Amino acid sequence: LNEILLLSGGIDSSALAAWRRPAQTLVIDYGQVSAAGEITAAQAVASELGLPVAVLRANCSAVGSGLLAGAAPDPAAPVEEWWPFRNQLLVTLAAAWALPRGLTNVVVGSVAGDGRHADGTVAFYDQLDILTAAQEGAVRVSVPAIGMTSGELVERSGISDSVLAWTHSCHRGPVACGDCPGCNKRRGVLHDLRRLV
Length: 197
Ligand SMILES: [Zn+2]
Description:
- By secondary structure, this protein is an alpha/beta fold.
- 38% of the residues lie in helices and 11% in strands.
- It contains seven helices and five strands; from the N terminus they run E-H-E-H-E-H-E-H-E-H-H-H.
- The protein has helices at residues 11-20, 35-49, 86-98, 122-133, 150-157, 161-164, 181-193; strands spanning 3-6, 24-29, 53-57, 105-107, 140-142.
- Strands 3-2-1-4-5 form a five-stranded parallel beta sheet, with helices on both faces.
- The longest helix is centred in the N-terminal third of the chain and has 15 residues, at 35-49.
- The structure holds zinc ion (ZN).
- Zinc ion (ZN) is lined by residues 170-172, 176-177, 180, 182-183.
């Protein structure tokens, strides 16, 4: 399917990697404060799953805001971790990296609960798919788990505890702070599923 999966090393994209087994995974350092932790986690997850992983570095911190930028949220921010146009930015970077390598399907691990910001919704990804498909190379964008909760995705994926243990979701830094939206979500999902307990 020529799929390239955006792998952040968090629960959702890691479960999607286990489920879809894409031809390629890609972790992007876009200047987020959690980049080092995401790269370490993504590399460990991909290694455990036997999938290729590449690291793309494109520092966009000059246009970031909110928790992931280690800065105050933008006045338009719907949640404190919101980074303006982040998913559009990441899909664009992934598509640009993928196209010359013959990969024409960008897969993103957004789930149902990500609709707290507009760029985590079905409507957004439908538009983004149309936008990339309309351009040279006709790259497509898909979000296979957008109708599932994180818990449903983890169960459907069959991801093992040994892979799950490597996931990292902190929005604050390379070491899990234990008290940010990313850490709290990860803990809640694992608790509800009685995994890694
Ligand atoms: Zn955290």
